[in-house]
Each structure stands twice: as C-alpha cells, then as structure tokens.
C-alpha cells in the first residue's frame, strides 16, 4: 500500500488465457473450449489478491460497523464512506494510467467488484459512481472534460450519476423523450424532460444525461447539479437497498453548454451500450459475491442452530439446500470470471499496438454482449434464489429484520431489474446470437446439419451412480449433447416461425426459452471448465469442486429438458410431438443420483463455513 491508496502494481507476464484460440461472441456454442482458455477465480495472482484484500479490509473495517446506519438511510455516513473509498483508490480502478488512474487488469477489477456483498446499500453509492457514473467519462470525455469532471470524480471530489431511464420508457431506453434544442447563438442546449430511478441523484454533483437533440438524435450531455431548472425529487421508498439514493429528476429549460456534449451528437447509444454492457459484466461479479455470502450465512447458522438435540445442518433437507446453494454460488462465480476474462483479455490483446482504443472497447463489448447479458441473468437469479434459501434456513428468524437474511433477501431483488431486466437480457442475448448467425459470424448452419450425421450419446452411464466414483470427465460429453439440443431447438423454431417475425412480441416466449437453454449451457460449461482447469494444475480440493460441478450440471439438464418441452410442445404437430421428445431424450442425460453427493457437499460447506476462498 502507498499511504491509504492502493499501490499501482506492475503485473507479471502470466497469461490468463492461452492465445491459441481467438474467442468471439457466443463461440462457446459451436467450438469446444479448452480448460486453459477460461479465466477463473483461482487465477488470482499475488498482485490481484493484494488489491482485492485491500478492498475487503475497507469493507470489514470501515463499512461493517455502519451497516445499520446505512440501512436507515443515513446519507451523511454514506458520503463519509464515499470519501474513504476515494482515498483507498476505488474510483481510480479503471481510469487509464495516463489520466492518473490505476488501470487495473481483468482479475483485479473483477476481484474488486466481489466486495459488493459486504457493502450493503453502500454498494449502490460506490459502484453507481465508480461504474456507470464514471465509465462514460473514462471512455468518451474530451481532454477538457476529463480535467473538469473525470479527475474530480476519480478523487472523490465529485459524484457522478447515470441518468437514462424515464417514467414512460423503462426498458425501451432508445425512445426517451427528454429533449435538447440548440440555442440560437449555438452556445448551449436547452433541455426539458424528466428522469426516474436515478441512482445517487440526491447526492450527485454531475449527471450523465441522455437526451434527444431536436427530438431525434440520441445523445449524451454532462449536466451540472447546480444548473438552474433542475430539481431532484424525494428519495423513492424502496423494497431493499434502503440506504441508497434513488430519485426522479425534473428538467425544466436547463441550459447545458455545448462543450458538455459527451461523445458525438447522435451517438449517445454508443455511450449507453458501452456502459451498460460493462455494467452487466460487473453486476455478474457483484451478484456472485452476494450468492457466496448467502451460502456463508446459511452454513454458519445451520452449524449453530440446535433443533431436536442436534444442529439443523445434520438434517437431510437442510443439507440438500446447502449443497444446491453452494453449487449455484460456485457456478455464478465461474460464469462471472469466465465472462470477464473474455472481455478484458480481448481488450488487452492488442498485438503490441498499445492500449485499446475506444473503438476496440466498443467492438469488444459488442462482440461479447450476449455473454454479458447471459452472465447478468445467471448470476442475479442465483443471488436472488440463494438469498431466499438463506432466509428459509433461518426459519422464523430469517423473517426478522434482526438477522441478515432479511436484508439480503430485499437487497438481492433489484439485481434482476437494473442494468436491463432479466427479461430484456434474455431477449437481447438470443437475438444477438441469431443475428450473428444470420450474418455468417456464427456457423449455426453447420452445427444444425451435423445433428443428423452424428449419433446421440444415449445417456451418460458414469453419471448414473451416486457413489464417490460418479465420474467427472463425462460431464464434457454431456455438455456437448446439451449443445445439440440447443441447435435442434433453434432449427425447430426457425422452421416454425418466419424469419422476419422471429423477434415479434408474440414470439418472445420462444426466444426466452432458447436463451435459457444457452444460459444453462454457459453456466454448466463454465463450472466444468473451472474445475477441469485446476485439476490439470494439480490443485487441491478437487473432490468438492467436482461434486459442485456435478450438481450444477444436473440442474442444467433438468432446466434444459423443461425448456425443450416448452418449445416443442408449442411448435410440433400433435402426432409429431412424441418423436421430437424421443429424439431430444437421446441427448438428455438420465437423472443422476445426487443424494450422497449433496450430503458430501453439505458436510464440506458446514465444516468450512461456506465456500472456500479458492480451490488452489
């Protein structure tokens, strides 16, 4: 450490991912990924662990004693902690070195995001500023704008808020109505409109404001808080995140100087999409950390709570919960780190051409936007489900605000809504993959043609045993079969729905089911590859890791089978449905006995008090 600020470290030349395979968006569906091609939490090096530990120490030392005050909406405490976070260097994390920042690498940034579970509602303040508040400035600000806004934001002297959502648009962000009209003398824009659900609005010094110039050109402005005509509404009364500031904004003839245009007029969608895709990427890690915390809280309580003369962790149904929770949390981490590795490794892979340009960032985030959306869905739903299960483990005490699961349950719910609702993310991911396939960037045609030439696996015998020798490697074959099911379903949907109607509102259920199949494959494969990579490296703890991967795989099998039934029963003629389902069943592994596996995982989780920090 240097003073109270994270030291800028020089990372070694350790490769996070081999360069023999150039990954591209959604390529996991058509190419077999090798274990050494993914980034996992176990890849954290000494430098990354040092940075991550510094942020965790901040959460434990500075934030934990004030969680109750923050929960009561104490903005004063929140802003004091905001200043301390700035002293630590959190807001410098992604700022390039030439602008005075830390320019942290992929694992350091991802590791930093993992502290959010310890911040309570302060996480909205900290990461709302560090992420969507600052990224537009990092990526699009002019030199003058960087001096006036980015440097103060980086040092904690200013707080930035991202103002996109409007009362009448919600997820339909491109149809905002806030207008900006250039003044007669060309010196400023006159802005009118309103925004809603703006994080940090009550405390922000500046707003990254999205407008329609002349009612037509989607654009971004930097608006100062002290602008005449700007008014901030009262704090919204929220289900969770009680210490956060979420407000509506009224903008009445506000004058914004032309030099405060961020990026180019008419190119505001680049600012929005670049920021939101990174936001989804970070939210995946935020949610994965919350899922891990839920396992920890539930396991510790189950080990201590005595009922019928013994700890409740001894009972089979609690063990089943703990094992399933641990598996989903482990899978969520695997997905979050794999996705971060894809995006950030691509940004760093400039072939000696220097740091990535803005175009590099935009192109890379567009390339992996489907994975970002899928990771957001997978991890946020794991977090929300595990918070619910943690509450259930606590029983009646979980329903009391005196215990942490109540707050965890409330706070987790928003993750399925912001950064794009999970419904929007599902539709976006599947549409993005189909559009890439139609353009020829993803060879779906060959994958579909291969279905008729390749005999189904016919079940995974090694997965049918419940003893300790259940087998791990057959999961790879099972994942290949699950991909065949995905392409079989894509073919069925393509034959049943006209191409130009594929994305109609009436067909969203098909798109969402296809997306869920792809998401489950991504989750199961990411978990398998994480375990396989570190088995190859001779890492300890492989028995627990393999058991977690097996539970994750079986859950994905069950979910994919359900979604396949949903699609085929809607598309197939009555007489053909049975043949379609029979065909799918040949690629769908039979249910594997998991009772002993769950008991083993639960015992391990109870002994550790949660998931191990890493399995290296």
DSSP strand count? 9
Termini separation: 25 Å
Secondary-structure arrangement, i.e. CATH architecture of the domain at 27-159: Orthogonal Bundle
Mean pLDDT score, rounded?
89
The string of secondary-structure elements, in order, is HHHHHHHEEEEEEEHEEHHHHHHHHHHH
Number of helices: 19
Biggest β-sheet description: 7 strands, mixed
Structural class: alpha+beta
The share of residues in helices is: 40-55%
Class of the domain at 27-159 in CATH?
Answer: Mainly Alpha
Structural commentary:
Helix content is 53%, strand content 9%. The chain is an alpha+beta fold and 616 residues long. Helix 8 (268-304) packs antiparallel against helix 12 and helix 15 (474-496) runs antiparallel to helix 16. The protein is globular, with a radius of gyration of 24 Å. It starts with 45 loop residues before the first helix and ends in an 8-residue tail after the last helix. Residues 1-21 and 456-470 have low confidence and may be disordered.
Key structural traits:
single chain, Butyryl-Coa Dehydrogenase, subunit A, domain 1, Butyryl-CoA Dehydrogenase, subunit A, domain 2, 7-stranded mixed sheet, two-stranded antiparallel sheet, disordered N terminus
Tell me the layout of helices and strands:
Elements: H1 46-63, H2 67-71, H3 75-88, H4 106-113, H5 122-133, H6 135-140, H7 143-154, E1 160-163, E2 179-182, E3 188-199, E4 206-213, E5 217-224, E6 230-232, E7 246-257, H8 268-304, E8 306-307, E9 310-311, H9 316-348, H10 358-367, H11 369-394, H12 404-412, H13 422-439, H14 444-453, H15 474-496, H16 508-536, H17 542-571, H18 574-587, H19 595-608
Parallel strand pairs: 1-4, 2-4
Antiparallel strand pairs: 2-3, 3-7, 4-5, 6-7, 8-9
